[in-house]
Amino acid sequence: MALVVEVRNLRKSFDHGHVRAVDGVDIETGPGEYLVLLGPSGCGKTTLLRTIAGLEEPDEGEIHIAGNLVNRLPPRAREVAMVFQSYALYPHKTVLANIEFPLKAEDIDKPERRRRAEWAAELLGIGHLMSRKPRHLSGGERQRVALARALVREPAVFLLDEPLSNLDAKLRASARDELKQFQQRLGTTTIYVTHDQAEAMGLGDRIAVMDRGKVRQVGPPKDVYLDPSDTFVATFLGSPPMNLIPRGDHLVGFRPEHFLPADLVAGDGSRLTVHFAVRRVEYLSGDRHVYGTVTELGEETRVIARLPATAETPIEVGESHEFAVHERDLRFFDAESGERTSPRPVRA
Amino acid sequence: MEAAGGRAPQAGASAIQDRIGAARSRLADREGFLGPMFLLPAVVYIVGLVAAPFFLALLFSFSDVTTGDPSLDLVGLRNFRSIFRDPIFWQSLRNTLVFTTVSMVLTIILANLLALILTSEFRFKRLIRFFVLLPWTTPVALSAVAWLWMLHSLFSPIDWVLRWFGFIEANVYWLGKPALAMASVIAVHIWRIVPLAAVIIMAGLAAIPDDIKEQARIDGAGFWRTFWEVRLPLTRPVIAVAALFGAILTFSDIAVVFVLTRGGPVNSTQVLPSYAFFKGIQAGSLAEGAAIALFLFPLLLAAAILILRSVRKMEIF
To answer: Which positions in chain B touch A280 (Cβ < 8 Å)?
Structure first.
């Protein structure tokens, strides 16, 4: 598979090396892939994206785009299009002039510019807004203009920096869906930065989870969720996050939705049953989040169980219930490093 | 999760009522009192130092007041008729327009350039910004005296340098020949107000979001395209304000002309403010001086209203 973007051992620090924003990142993405960079704020995901775009110069490492080393190239020579969180529309230009601007910079003649701008606008359904100024557009419309401006050059890769975070919550879900359809239709490689795990899970072909300048794990959403490579990924993804119980030199982890009243967990021989002392119950649109403590699996630890709406077992604060988790749903991590380790015996 | 502490200390509804009642509204809480108090100093200042002199000048311009005879009799438009017959008045008006127009055009161009340079990244940026601002912060009388020496007919260091390089053989007499004197006055004035205009424009440039500048880079725009299509249009309102301030400062400026040339040689650098001063104060004809000084007021007012209105229309964000 020919790689569209290939990043090798990239390092970028600020403040004379005091802040290591990107600390040795290797990542690559192939044709048509939707790669999501996910991580908490300050994890270096945006810096990584900006370095790929050419807005930041790396201290070390290599960036290849479509097979060419682009470290020394300015953004315009990199065949990238970027959509900023704010959309960064030129406020004094009409929608048409905004979309045409990258083509103008390439000295493409006027009729051709117009033709391609109209093609891009039609694709995003904003053909009727061409003569408006950005300040007369809604948030969703602005986002489309920004996307149209990005795609009008037919770049090798789209770089999107939290493009949904400026939309209100209601619009976000539908915009996410449109974004995905749009990319599938065009088939353009996309690198998408977000701190929102729902966006990452929903959009990404693969997710790269980042923390403190490093990529912790790369993989399809399901793999990253079900088989986290360390405790950071395990607790960053999922809401509520994975339960981790200290046990000797390692940690036993399981997802809240796998920790259920014992009668709901199938498989007598392969399930692990414990007493769950309930301290608090949250009712969240159908699901119940049950907070409590477990003592039998290791040290006494607070854990959370997420019961689906279909689990009708009555649970009250102060009670102790028989809860169980299937052995195949247990994950093990090294207590010291947080890295994933091989399964350990849990019955003793 | 459990509550961290216990309950709040038993206060009881009546105790809270007592506490609310105890705190009385003070004088400083009353907006009806505070508002006018805060406005007062500004009002006193404007009435005392702007409005009163202005109306006094208006009154003078329709009277026969002189420094020797302060008794005031209204004489209608006599003063205006008299200055309209005065060829030096018309020359001063022409000089004022040339002085203002040329200064303003050059100031805006140079200030834009300076702002572009000062907003880019380089070493010792702060130090250099400080030096660039010095002309504006130096008292004008002081800097004009320095320029008087720079342009002196015998001791001018500028002439000395030019001579040393062999560009000229004899001294230029910067302030001694009509065209050169006007050019010198304009140059010194520009030197003085470019920093102010540059700072205003820099504020405008700084207000452009970084995203938009970066977007222009991503979109492949080079320096000039970014300048003409992004930076300039986005700073246009600010530039207009800088031009307005500059024009008004230039129209009403007397210091540079007064110190450098006193309007000479033979009134070739005489501007309305300086002529009003010579006529009204030094020659003692207060009424005619007031008429000269007020002549441009309606024009300036109209220009200011026009510019401010177009700035408001230019709002872009």
So the answer is: 1
Eight-state DSSP code of residue B280: I
Q: Where are any strands of DSSP class E within A4-101? A: 5-14, 19-29, 34-38, 60-65, 68-69, 80-83
Q: What type of residue sits at position B265? A: P
Give the H/E segment covering residue A275.
strand A271-284
CB contact under 8 A, A82 and B211: no
- Express the helix, strand and coil content of chain B in percent, nearest 5 each: 70, 0, 25
Region of A327 (left: φ > 0; alpha: ψ -120 to 50; beta: rest) is alpha
Which residue matches tokens 């793999």?
Answer: A223
B12 C-beta neighbours (distance < 10 Å), count:
9
**How far apart, in whole angstroms, are the C-alpha atoms of residue B169 and residue B166?**
7
Residues in chain B: 317
Model confidence, pTM: 0.79
Q: Which residue has the tokens 């010095």?
A: B134
* 3-state DSSP of A279-305: EEEEEECCEEEEEEEECCCCCCEEEEE
C-alpha pair distances (Å), B186 with each of A222, A302, B92: 73, 79, 14
ipTM of the complex: 0.83
CB contact under 8 A, A76 and B233: no
What is the pLDDT at residue B4? 45
Token pair, residue A298, equals 């290791």
Q: How far apart are CA B66 and CA B58, in angstroms?
A: 14
Q: How far is CA B62 from CA B69, B71, B280, in A?
A: 15, 13, 14
pLDDT in tens, B37-88: 899 999 999 999 989 988 988 888 888 877 777 777 778 788 888 888 888 8
CB B86: neighbour CB atoms within 10 A?
A: 14
| Residue B265, preceding peptide bond in cis (omega within 30° of 0) | yes
Question: Inter-chain contact B225–A90, Cβ cutoff 8 Å?
Answer: no
- The residue of chain A nearest to residue B237, with distances taken between CA atoms, is A92
